[in-house]
Amino acid sequence: ANLGPASGAAADSPANPLHGIVQVKGGAFAPWLERQLVARARHELTETMEEFRRAEWAVTKQGQVKSGGGRHDKDDSRRIDDRRSYVLGWSNEEKVQLLIEEAHHLQRQLTRIDDERGALTVRRRGVEERRTSLDQLQVFGDWSELDWMASVNRMSDLTAEKQNIEASSGELVKVTELLKGVQASLLARRDERDHLIGENRGDERERDSQVSVLDRLHGLLADGGSEVSGEILKELERLFSKRLRDEPFVDVEAVDRADASIRSTLTNSIDSKRQDLQRRGQRIVGRMREFRVKFPMDVAEADDSVQSADEYRRLQERLAVDDLPRFEASFKEYLNTNTIRDIAGFSSQLHKHAELIKERVDTINESLVSIDYNPGRYISLIVTRTPSTEIRDFIADLRACTDDSLAGEDQDQYSEQKFLQVKRIIERLKGREGQTEADRAWTKRVSDVRNWYVFSASERSRDDDVEHEHYTDSGGKSGGQKEKLAYTILAASLAYQFKLEWGVTRSKTFRFVVIDEAFGRGSDDSTRFALSLFARLGLQLLIVTPLQKIHVIEPFVSSVGFVDNISGRDSRLQNLSIEELHEKREARRRER
Question: Strand 512-516 and strand 540-544: pairing?
Answer without folding.
Answer: parallel
